[in-house]
Amino acid sequence: MATASITMSEAQFNTLRKIVYERSGIHFQDSKKYVLESRLSRRLEEMNFENFDQYLMFLTAGPYQTDEFQEMFNRITINETSFFRNEPQLEVFEKEILPEVLEARKDTKRLRIWSSASSTGEEPYTLAIQIHRTLGVRLPDWHVEILGTDISEKVLMTAQSGVYPSYSIRTLNPLILKRYFTEEKGTYALDPTIKSMVRFELLNLKDAISARRFGTWDVIFCRNVMIYFDDQMKTHCTKLFYDQLAKDGALFIGHSETLRNIDVPFEPIPVPHAFAYKKADGTGKGEA
Questions:
Q1: Domains of the chain, with CATH numbers?
Q2: Fewest C-beta in 10 Å: which of 13, 73, 212, 220?
Q3: pTM (2 decimals)?
Q4: DSSP strand E in the chain: where?
Q5: Burial of 262 (0-12, 13-18, 19+ CB in 10 A)
Q6: What is the per-residue pLDDT for 185?
Q7: Distance (Å, whole) CA 40 – CA 239
């Protein structure tokens, strides 16, 4: 990793990570000072700032501080993802959870799924593909709503385009690639039908009020996000998901994450590779 040309003092790091945490819930541990320093020093050079004190002043009192917060988030967040990432877990969703939800919603024919940290869109589009091939000719009879949200405006623009580099489809089954993508000069454009099944919104998970306006969800995905949160933020997000999840819904988290020791009444779904939870007191059918 290249050495940052503008260095950050411990005091500057503490101030900056406090700002990041207050705005996003993302917690940078003491050992991650170099991450903020290396990812933001180039930004300081672009803005002709000589040091991080000037940048901190701009972030807190500058005329375009809101825009700069968004730019900062774009640079400090990692958006490592791909289509059908952690396929065993997605197979549990498609073969176990999805059929149960569809059966429970057979009267209303309404299905709502939230990808709460959708990054550049690979996850919600993957779910759309799975729903498309599960419902098949029945799809027109259903009202399927898939929402992808993220804190980064930049990654959402990529998601909305539906065009991806080869890296995003690197582990994709060739049959799925052929069926749902069109190659265009080294990039891969998603099938318009799948693209139309997903919409994207800018959302900070720390903002529970904004999240609640989207209503109740049958399935919520929040994978590989809470590893960046401290216990307080993890509890906040878990409570939010509990409130927004249908009574018989499912919450999927990352394979390296757990809800253990979080005081919210979720219980694991006892299926290998699921990394999924249901409401411990959930009874009856949920309503979208």
A1: 10-76 (1.10.155.10), 87-279 (3.40.50.150)
A2: 212
A3: 0.86
A4: 110-115, 143-150, 163-165, 181-184, 187-190, 198-202, 217-222, 245-253, 266-268, 276-279
A5: middle
A6: 87
A7: 32
How many other C-beta atoms lie within 10 A of the C-beta of residue 70?
A: 15
Rounded-to-integer distance, Cα 187 and Cα 163, Å: 7
Q: Which of the following is catalytic: 39, 42, 75, 199? A: 39
Does residue 39 register a pLDDT over 80?
yes
Task: Pick the catalytic residue from 17, 105, 112, 150.
Answer: 150
39 among known catalytic residues? yes
The SS3 assignment for 200 reads: strand
223 catalytically annotated: no
pLDDT digits (tens, 9 = 90+) for 94-126: 999 999 999 999 999 999 999 999 999 999 999
Task: List the structure tokens of 227.
Answer: 């590893």
